[in-house]
Amino acid sequence: xxxxxxxxxxxxxxxxxxxxxxxxxxxxxxxxxxxxxxxxxxxxxxxxxxxxxxxxxxxxxxxxxxxxxxxxxxxxxxxxxxxxxxxxxxxxxxxxxxxxxxxxxxxxxxxxxxxxxxxxxxxxxxxxxxxxxxxxxxxxxxxxxxxxxxxxxxxxxxxxxxxxxxxxxxxxxxxxxxxxxxxxxxxxxxxxxxxxxxxxxxxxxxxxxxxxxxxxxxxxxxxxxxxxxxxxxxxxxxxxxxxxxxxxxxxxxxxxxxxxxxxxxxxxxxxxxxxxxxxxxxxxxxxxxxxxxxxxxxxxxxxxxxxxxxxxxxxxxxxxxxxxxxxxxxxxxxxxxxxxxxxxxxxxxxxxxxxxxxxxxxxxxxxxxxxxxxxxxxxxxxxxxxxxxxxxxxxxxxxxxxxxxxxxx
Length: 409
Ligand SMILES: Nc1nc2c(ncn2[C@@H]2O[C@H](COP(=O)(O)OP(=O)(O)OP(=O)(O)O)[C@@H](O)[C@H]2O)c(=O)[nH]1
Ligand SMILES: [Mg+2]
Fold this sequence. Notes:
Blueprint: E1 12-18, H1 24-32, E2 50-56, E3 60-66, H2 74-88, E4 93-99, H3 106-117, E5 122-127, H4 137-143, E6 151-153, H5 162-175, E7 192-196, H6 210-221, E8 225-229, H7 234-240, E9 247-250, H8 255-261, E10 268-270, H9 271-278, H10 282-288, E11 300-305, H11 316-329, E12 334-339, E13 352-355, H12 363-375, E14 380-382, H13 383-390, H14 394-397, H15 402-407
Parallel strand pairs: 1-3, 1-4, 4-5, 5-6, 7-8, 7-9, 9-10, 11-12, 11-13, 13-14
Antiparallel strand pairs: 2-3
Helix pairs in contact: 11-13
C-alpha cells in the first residue's frame, strides 16, 4: 500500500462469495469495470482470496475481495473454503453470487445463515441472466425470505443489472458507516496535544507507523496542535511549552517513563487505548486484563497479532509480552502466538487472549475476534492495556474515558 492511499483498515470491505463457477470473479470484475480476477469455465479457478483496493463511486475507498467457491472439495478444497470464511470475518458488505440457472444450494443457504448471524449487510445476486429462460428471482426471494432490494438479477457477461448492483452495494455500505473518532471528540480547537513516539530499532525506517499518522491527522481535523517528541524529550518539552497540554498520548512501550515524566494533572493515555476505543473493544479489553491476576501455573495464553511484520529479535508479541506477563504474575505460563488473518476458532483452552492493537485489521475483523472470545467465555485484552495494567498505570491512562475508568473503581 502506498503512503498516499487510504489505509486498508479504513476502507469498506466488499466480499463476493458463492459456489464455484457461479460467476463471483466475473461479477466483481463487472462491478469494478476492471479485469481484477481470473475468470474461466473451470470450476475452482479462484484458489486464493483476491484483494483490490480502489475507489468505487459513488461510495469512495473500498477493498474488493474475491473468494474461492464455498463448495470446493477435497483436502485442498476444504482449506480454500476456510479461507473464504476467513474473508467473511472482515467483510462489511457481502455479495452472495448464485448461478441464476441453478438457484440456491445448501452451501449458499449455510453461508447466508452465517452472514445473517453476523449482521453483515448483504445482497443476493442471480447471475447469468442472459442464460436464464425461466424467471427465478421471486422464487429465490421467497425461499430465502428476502426483501425486494436484497436480490438482483444480473449478467456479468453482457452487463445487465450491473449498474443497479453497484448502486445497491454503495447504499448498503453507506448505511453501515457510523462516525467515529480517534481523539477528535476529546479535544477542542487550539488545544495542545503531545505525542510520545519512541524511535527504537523496531520502528520502521524513515516513517511513522499508521496509528501515529492517523492520530496526528485526527488532531489536525480538530483544529488542535500536535507536538511530537521522543520519550527522552518529553520532560523538557512539557517544561518549555507555554501552557499545559490537553492530553499526552504515548506509545505503550514507553508508558512507565512517560507516566513518571507527565505531571499528574495532565491527562495521559496511549495510542493503543485510543485505538481500542476506535475499534470498539476498549471496555472488553479493560475488563479482560483482570484475568492476569487469576492465572495459575500451566495456564495457556494466546498472543495474536493482526499483521505479519518482520519479527525483531526483541519482538513485542513473542518476547516482551510473555516476559512482562511472567514477571508480573510470577507463574509458569505457556504462550501460543498467531499472526495475520489466522485466528483460531477454538479458544477454550486459553485463559486469556492478548491481541495487538489491530491497526492493520478493520473494525469488523476486530469485532469478530472479540465475539469469538466472548462466545467461548475467554477474556481478551490488548498489548497496550496489558502493559498499562502490569505497570500499574491503567487507571490513570483511561481517565479520558470516565465510563471506562469507573470499571476499575
Ligand atoms: N453466459 C454467462 N456466463 C457467465 C456469466 N458470468 C460468468 N460466466 C461464465 O461462468 C464461468 C465461471 O465464471 P467465474 O467468474 O470464473 O466464476 P467464479 O464463481 O469466480 O468461479 P470459481 O473461481 O471457479 O469459484 C466462466 O466461464 C464465465 O465466463 C454470465 O453472466 N453469463
Ligand atoms: Mg473465481
